[in-house]
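Entry for the shared binder. Reason: the reviewer on the internal report wants the predicted structure included alongside the sequence.
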Amino acid sequence: MKRFLLRALLGVLFMLLLLAAFLGWKEYEQRKERAAYLATLTNTAAPNVMTLPDTILVDYLGKKRTLYVLLPEGYRERDSLRYPVLYFFDGEALFNELENKGTEWEVDEVINRVAGRGGPAAIVIGIADSDERLTEYKPFPSPDYPDKVPVTGAGHLDWVVNGLKPWVDANFRTLTDREHTGLGGCSLGGLMAYYGVMTYPEVFSRGLIFSPSLWVNEKVFTLHESVDLTQMRLYFCAGEEESSTVNDNRKMMTVLRDAGLPDSLLMSDVFPGKGHGHDTWQLAFASAYPWIME
C-alpha cells in the first residue's frame, strides 16, 4: 500500500512538473510573440504632437506626471488664435502606437484632417496614467468588487480641475470657459470622464465617454440630478461584444433623456464585432469628432 501511494505521489509530482514546464514554455512563447509585435511598432504621432515628460506635479501624490499634447497645425504661426481644449485620461493611447504599445486612437490624424477641411481644431491634453490607475480612476468604491486600498478618483479629478487646467490655460492659448472644454477617457477613464462633467459642470460641457465602467457603483446613475443637462453634449460608445457595457450605456442614456437631455446633445455608437479595446476607441474618436465640438 505504501509503495502504491509513493508511486501515485511521484506520478502526481511528475504531472505537476510537466504542467509547470508547459506553462513556462507557453509564457515564454507569448513573451516572444509580444516582443516581436512591439518591434513592428513605429512612431505614429503627427509633428504637432509633443510629449512633456514628468512636467506637472500631482500635488496630492507628490509625484510629477507626463503629458501628451496636441497643438493645432499652424498654432505658432497664427499666434492670435485661441482654441478649445479636450482633456483625456489614459493619454498614452491618443497619438502614438509606440507610447501605447499597440493600437492608438489617431486623435491627431482625425483633428488635423477635420481642421484641414475647415472644421474645428482643438488643443488636446493627454494625461498619462500611473501604476495606481485602478484606484486613481475610481471616484467611489465598488461594493461588488471591494478595493484593497482607498480609491482616489475624486482627488485626481480635483487635481485636473484645480491643478492641471490652470497650468494648461497659463501655458497655451486656450479658450478657458466651459463651453470650450471637454473631458474624455475609456473604461475606468470613461467613468472618470462622465463623473468629471457631472461633478464640475461649471468647468466641462462636453464628455467623450468610451466604454465606461458604469458597473463600479450605482451612484453614477444619479450624478446628473443637480446638473442642467441642456448645457451638456455627451458621446457614449461601446463595442458590440461588450454586452454589459452596451446595456449600461443604454440605461444611462435613458436616465439622461428622462432627466431632460435633448437627443440633439446626445450621441452614441455600438461598433459591430468590436470589444473592449483600443481599436473600438479609435473608431469612437473618429465618429465623435467634430460633433462633440459643435
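Summary line for the report: The chain is about 40% helix and 15% strand.
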